[in-house]
Amino acid sequence: MAARDNRHSRIVAWLKIVLPLIALGILSTLFLLSDRRGREVDLPYSEVQLDRILRERRVQNPDYASLTRDGSAITVTASEAVPDPADPDRTDVSDLTATLDLAGGGRVDLSARRGTLDTGRSELLLEGDIRIVTTSGYDLRTEALRAALDLTRVVADTAVTGQAPAGTLAAGSMELRKDGDRNLLRFADGVKLVYRPDTLSAGPDGE
Amino acid sequence: QGAEVGFGGLRQDTSLPVEVASDSLNVDQTAGTAVFQGNVLITQGEMKLSASSVEVFYAGAGTQSGRIARMVAEGNVTLVNGHEAAEAQRAVYDIDAGSVVMTGDVILTQGTTALSGETLTIDLGTGTGQMEGRVRTIFETGDR
Q: Which residues cross the membrane (chain A) (predicted)?
């Protein structure tokens, strides 16, 4: 009887060692081999970007919105904005688009490679590959443009060329402003429009 | 009574591009009107129409159609087509129909003779004109 009891207690003693080890092994597979993905949240800014932002106070994808006194809404978005160290009111922006929702209907979309947002003088200056698209059918390009932020007024002092509702248009300057409840677009300093009746669908009588 | 006048005798292709040049162009986006102002010169083929202001009227609703129905020129309007010239206070130029209707003490000069009347209707397509209203012919007697 003793031998059998002896073997039994040896087996039990042996099991007391092996079983916990196996349990430990199973537990470790749970943590060690588990899938790491999605564990830590990736920071929106890398360390490098954080330093750059602090050093140059450069902001990505900024946007700016304001309402003019005469009821038009202006929103400006850009790829990057860098405050002008010399003048806190001025912010240089790049690849900007500005949308002017005119009171009384109509919309003007401006885009440019570079610009300066001057909240001191309530003005947005645009430079380089400027495009002006209006819902009234104008799609124009110019090289320099000023858009007021507190009033509905967009002025191009340089030549403006592009498409008008009726054809191709070229003018020495352009100004969009509000007069009462009417949105006026004035081209000056020499204007030339070329209207091609044959290119339009001339309708039944067209040859 | 009216007088049939040959007008340049040129057959004008009314689908030629129309060029409008002026000092300025004022567009009222709300009302959808467009007015050329200051030394306005409209050119199509051989025809030149100059005036102090020209308003553009679009066919269809607003400016979206992009198709010009007619242009109304006002203020010392002169039309030159070939070697004829006509002056008036006002002219309505219908591009598709190729017609120009000039009103307001119209004077049509052809070489040495001049014709005056109230309304001159010119068909650019056939190069003919119709003068109406107190038509008088003025001969240039003296040597110019």
A: 12-33
